[in-house]
Amino acid sequence: MFYSSGEEKEKAVKDSLEMLRTLEEHALGKKKFFCGDKISLVDIACGWIAQWLEVLEEVAGVKLIEPQKFPRLHKWIENFKDEPIIKENLPGHDEMLVYFKPLAGKAPSR
């Protein structure tokens, strides 16, 4: 999605939405975090969604996680980013944007 366009980008968006829908419907439930009230390894593994995905959405010009489509995932992102240990260690949005924007025009090497 990040480097693609046209049909390739549409497929990447569709696949990404399917993965996010699976997390929304089957993994989160009504819990604050994936395994309950405390951050677990699963939250850490999915933590890139909380900060990186937002920046990648901006760079790619797509919006994947909308609160009305993914209310549980959206709430999980808020909860995750609000945890002191996470808040203290996440890179800044603007800092990440500066890094990723120049990469948007470059195709990955194969």
TrEMBL record:
InterPro entries noted in UniProt: Glutathione-S-Trfase_C-like, Glutathione-S-Trfase_C_sf, GST_C, GST_C_Tau, Omega/Tau-like
Pfam families per UniProt: GST_C (PF00043)
GO CC term, one of those recorded: cytoplasm
CDD domains: GST_C_Tau (cd03185)
Coiled coil region boundaries: none
Domain GST C-terminal: 1-100
Gene Ontology biological process terms in this record: glutathione metabolic process
GO-annotated molecular function: glutathione transferase activity
PANTHER family: GLUTATHIONE S-TRANSFERASE, GST, SUPERFAMILY, GST DOMAIN CONTAINING (PTHR11260), GLUTATHIONE TRANSFERASE (PTHR11260:SF679)
Official protein name in the record: GLUTATHIONE S-TRANSFERASE-RELATED
UniProt lineage: Eukaryota, Viridiplantae, Streptophyta, Embryophyta, Tracheophyta
